[in-house]
User: What shape does this take?
Amino acid sequence: MLLVTGQAETLEFSSTQHWEVRSPSVVLQIPDHIRLTSGNPERHWKLPPVNRREVFRRDNHTCQYCGSTKHLTLDHVIPRSKGGTHTWDNVVAACEKCNSSKGDRLLHETGMVLQTKPKAPMHPALAKLSEGIAFAEQFWKEQQPVDT
Assistant: This one.
């Protein structure tokens, strides 16, 4: 549909295979790869809400103080009673033991150290940047012919 409406264009690679799609009046040759030529502003990725499921996913279901994966809770690095907010950079996954030993205190008061600094999750396509290569770059490198 994107090709028919002009919102995408065909990408031709040496190994591109075309598929035939037939209707009563039209036969379309559909390629394996297409590229969008126009964007839809409504399709922008939205930052997920700060909730238990999303924080655990970001922190890999691991306590950010001791590394345990059992009996996890949410902990505010700067306690809400001391002006801390319920935001991505202040909420981490913590096991019950670490959470209760930290209590309503700041990190420097307890001597505890975070394993990773809390931050908002990245767009899935950008997450590969932390591994050294962006999703789009990886795709284009795979499509380049290999020189022998």
In short: The mean pLDDT is 83.
